[in-house]
Specification:
heterodimer; A: two-stranded antiparallel ribbon; B: alpha/beta; six-stranded mixed beta sheet; four-stranded antiparallel beta sheet; 10 helices; 10 strands; about 40% helix; about 25% strand; globular
C-alpha cells in the first residue's frame, strides 16, 4: 500500500500543508497573532478562480496568477483596514479583529455569490494522470509539489538574500530592536501579510483543484490544517512550519492506509490524538526556535 | 546636539523620570551614572522613542523629537545599544550588521563599512557567518556596538555596555568607547561603573530615583566627597525597595 503513488500523493499533500502553515506562521512570528481570517484568503482565491474561469475567456495560468494576486491584496487590505488600527492596543484586540474579518469575508461571499457550492472549471491537466514506475500519479499532485518547491525556494531566497527579508527574520526575533535600527514597522508587517496572502492564494489553486468547487466556508479546513501544522512544527520557526506541514500530511495519509474501514470516519480524532502525544513530548513543537527572548511591544 | 528639558516619563504606574534636563554637545562623551532603578534606561528609551514622555521636550539638532517613532528617530541619526544588547539570535553576525546599515542605501559603502567593523572588531570577522545567539557575551556586546555604528550615528547611546562582561572585556569596552569618542563620535554612556566612566568622559550626570542629583566634569563629581557614599547608600535603599 505504501507505494510510489502513495509517496507522491503524501508529498503533494505535505507541500500544500507546508505552504499553508508558512503563511500563518510568518505573521505569527512577528505579531504573535494567529490570523483566523487566514482561511478566508484561500476562499477569496477560490472565488476568484470560479468567477474568472466561469465568466472570462482568460487562459488558466493567467487566472491562477490573478487569484494569487487577489488573495495577496485582500491580505494586505485586511492588515491596512482592520489590523493596523488596533495593533498598538493589544494582542487580544487583534485576535478578535481576525475573527471579525473572517466572519465579514465569509458573509460577503454569502451575500454576493451564494451560500451554495459553486463549481470551478479546472483545466484538463488537473484530472489527468501520468504513469511513473508502474503507478498512476495525478498531474495535479506533481504540480503541487513542483510549485510548492518553487515557492519555498523563492521565500527562502527573499528571507536570506534581501535586506527586507533579513529584517523580517529579525522582527521575528525582536521587533522592537528591529524598529530601533530604522526598519519601519509597517513595511515589515505589510510584507508579512503579503507573503501570507500569496501562500494562501497558491494553496487555493490546489485546494480548489482537489474539490473543484468553492463555498463561503471553505476557509475553515485550511485554517485548521495550518494551525495544527504550525503547532506540530513549532510556532516560532519557519522551518518548523514546513516540517509540521509534511508531518501532518504523513500522519493523516498513514492513518488513511492503516486504519480499519470502520474507524476511517474517526481519522481526524486519531490525528489529533497523535498531535497531543507529540506535544506531550515536545511542547514547543518539533523544531525549537533558537531564541527564548520575549518580545515586547 | 541633544537637549532634554524637564522630561517626565512613566513606566506603567511608576514615575520613572521626574523633570530631567540634560544636554549633550556635538563631539562630547557624556556619562549618565546611577544605580539600578534610577531611571537611566528609561531616559535612553525615552530619547529613542520607545517611551513617550508625558511632559517636557526633547530636541535633537534643534528638532523636536517627542512623538516620533523609534524608526524615525533612528533615521535622524540616534542609535541605541540597549542593555542586554538585543542581538538578533537567529541572524548571522553579518546579517546583524547588515540590518544596522538599514538606513543607509549605498551598497558599496556598506561593503566598506563592514570591512571597517571587522578590522575594528576582529573577532566579528572570524564569526561573520555564525548565528548571533551562539556568540559569547563579549562578542555580542561588540556586535551590538558595531551594528549601531553601521548606521553612522550622529549620537551613539550605550546602555551599560560593560554589564555582565569579564573584567578583561570590560577594559576592552571602555577603551573602545574612549577610542570612538576620540574619533569624533558623540556618545551618551549609561553606566554603573562610576570610576571607569569618570576616567574617560567629558562630563557626567548623576541620576537618582528619576531626577538629576549632580552634574559636571569628572573632577567636580570626584571631589564631591560622598558620591560613592550616596551611590552605595542608595543602592542598598533601592535594593530593599525592590523587594
Amino acid at each position: 500500500m505504501i507505494n510510489f503513488e502513495f509517496i507522491v500523493n503524501t508529498l503533494s499533500l505535505g507541500s500544500l500543508y507546508a505552504m499553508l502553515a508558512l503563511g500563518l506562521v510568518i505573521i505569527y512570528g512577528i505579531l504573535r497573532l494567529v490570523n483566523f481570517a487566514y482561511g478566508e484568503l484561500v476562499m477569496i482565491g477560490g472565488y476568484t478562480l470560479y468567477l474568472l474561469t466561469g465568466f472570462t475567456p482568460l487562459p488558466w495560468v493567467a487566472i491562477a496568477l490573478f487569484a494569487v494576486l487577489v488573495s495577496m491584496f485582500t491580505s494586505l487590505g485586511t492588515e491596512l483596514v482592520a489590523f493596523r488600527p488596533v495593533r498598538e492596543k493589544s494582542l487580544t484586540a487583534m485576535l478578535i479583529t481576525s475573527f471579525a474579518v473572517s466572519t465579514l469575508l465569509q458573509n460577503g461571499a454569502l451575500l454576493i455569490i451564494s451560500p451554495r457550492a459553486r463549481a470551478v472549471r479546472l483545466p484538463q491537466i488537473f484530472s489527468e494522470s501520468v504513469r511513473i514506475a508502474g503507478a498512476d500519479v495525478p498531474w495535479r499532485n506533481i504540480l503541487t509539489i513542483v510549485v510548492s518547491l518553487v515557492m519555498l525556494g523563492l521565500l527562502s531566497l527573499l528571507l536570506r538574500r534581501t535586506t527586507l527579508g533579513i529584517a523580517l527574520r529579525a522582527a521575528a526575533d525582536n521587533f522592537r530592536m528591529t524598529r530601533m535600527l530604522g526598519v519601519p514597522a509597517n513595511t515589515v508587517i505589510s510584507t508579512a501579510f503579503a507573503i501570507s496572502g500569496i501562500m494562501a492564494g497558491v494553496v487555493s489553486i490546489f485546494w480548489i483543484g482537489r474539490s473543484a468547487s468553492v463555498t463561503p466556508t471553505i476557509g475553515l479546513p485550511p485554517l485548521l490544517v495550518a494551525f495544527v501544522a504550525t503547532v506540530i512544527g513549532g510556532m516560532r520557526s519557519l522551518v518548523g512550519a514546513v516540517v509540521g506541514g509534511y508531518v501532518y500530511a504523513i500522519i493523516i495519509s498513514l492513518l488513511g492506509v492503516f486504519l480499519p474501514q470502520t474507524l476511517l470516519d474517526f481519522r481526524e480524532a486519531f490525528m489529533f490524538g497523535i498531535v497531543i502525544l507529540i506535544l506531550l513530548f515536545r511542547p514547543e513543537g518539533l523544531i525549537r526556535s533558537k531564541t527564548s527572548v520575549e518580545r515586547i511591544g | 546636539m541633544l537637549v532634554l528639558k524637564e522630561v517626565h516619563a512613566r513606566y506603567g504606574a511608576i514615575t520613572a523620570l521626574r523633570g530631567v534636563s540634560i544636554e549633550v554637545k556635538e563631539g562630547e562623551l557624556v556619562a549618565l551614572l546611577g544605580v539600578n532603578g534610577a531611571g537611566k534606561s528609561t531616559l535612553l528609551g525615552t530619547i529613542a522613542g520607545i517611551l513617550r514622555p508625558w511632559q517636557g521636550s526633547i530636541h535633537f539638532q534643534n528638532q523636536a523629537i517627542v512623538g516620533k517613532t523609534p524608526e524615525q528617530i533612528t533615521r535622524l541619526g540616534i542609535a541605541l545599544v540597549p542593555e542586554g544588547r538585543d542581538i538578533f539570535p537567529s541572524l548571522t553576525t553579518e546579517e546583524n550588521l547588515r540590518l544596522g546599515a538599514f538606513t543607509r542605501k549605498d551598497r558599496s559603502e556598506y561593503r566598506r563599512d563592514l570591512e571597517e567593523m571587522f578590522s575594528l572588531f576582529p573577532v566579528l570577522g572570524e564569526r561573520r557567518g555564525q548565528l548571533g545567539g551562539t556568540l559569547s557575551g563579549g562578542e555580542q556586546q561588540q556586535l551590538a556596538i558595531a551594528r549601531a555604528l553601521m548606521s553612522h550615528p550622529k549620537l551613539l547611546m550605550l546602555d551599560e555596555p560593560s554589564l555582565g562582561l569579564a573584567p578583561a572585556l570590560v577594559d576592552q569596552i571602555f577603551e573602545l568607547v574612549a577610542r570612538l569618542h576620540r574619533s569624533g563620535v558623540t556618545i551618551l554612556l549609561v553606566e554603573q561603573n562610576v570610576d571607569r566612566s569618570l576616567a574617560i568622559v567629558d562630563r557626567a550626570y548623576l541620576l537618582n530615583t528619576g531626577s538629576i542629583e549632580m552634574s559636571g566634569t569628572p573632577a567636580v563629581l570626584r571631589t564631591h566627597a560622598d558620591i560613592e557614599g550616596i551611590y552605595m547608600g542608595d543602592r542598598r535603599r533601592n535594593l530593599s525597595a525592590e523587594r
